[in-house]
Model the fold of this input.
Amino acid sequence: MTTAQERKQQERTARRRRIQRAARTVFAEKGYAKTSIEQIAREASLSVGAIYLYFRSKEDLYVSLLEETLDLFDTELRQIRGRTEAAAPERLRQAWSFLTQWAATDVEASRVLRLISQPNIRAQLSDEVVESVGKGLTQVREHLSGIVQEGTQAGIYHRAPQQVVDMFWCLFIGVLEASDARANLDMPGASYPELSQAAFSAIDAAVRVAEGAQPAAEVAA
Done:
């Protein structure tokens, strides 16, 4: 039998998700800068005060939308990691393709992802959102690191898994930023797919053991 405390928690979770669904709709329609808490409250059929019971600020609510994105990342990357019939480099390429294609099709969500790197954002975020997003990003890194670790053990990679994951993630975010900058300034240059392909090729070349070389006996995890 469900207790009163459990029902209260279920109601809280349901209302929080209701607010997030409304926020996603408004953010996608108006963009981050032009969205207000008042507009989200109207979309959710709630008072402004009710929104602030669940989220500290507009930034807090915006970043909380990453929770759903990171759940998707966890599901997809877990599946890719488990495809052990494919060599590690192919699975790492599949992970890259998934993330770059996701960013191209869910532009608003990719902007949410990049907001967490902005200066002074931490002060705007609740502990609940920070903990949830932090756990999600850690899980993403663990999936990528697991793929790389297998490649290291097979003598394919010569860098520590965490170094490869850092390079992978930095270039992923960098490609998104470079693509947006070019679009905003109407600058000529490689397309987003071309940038993405070049970036992954750079990662692959930088971390592989050179053909004919003897791999290091041990590589730190």
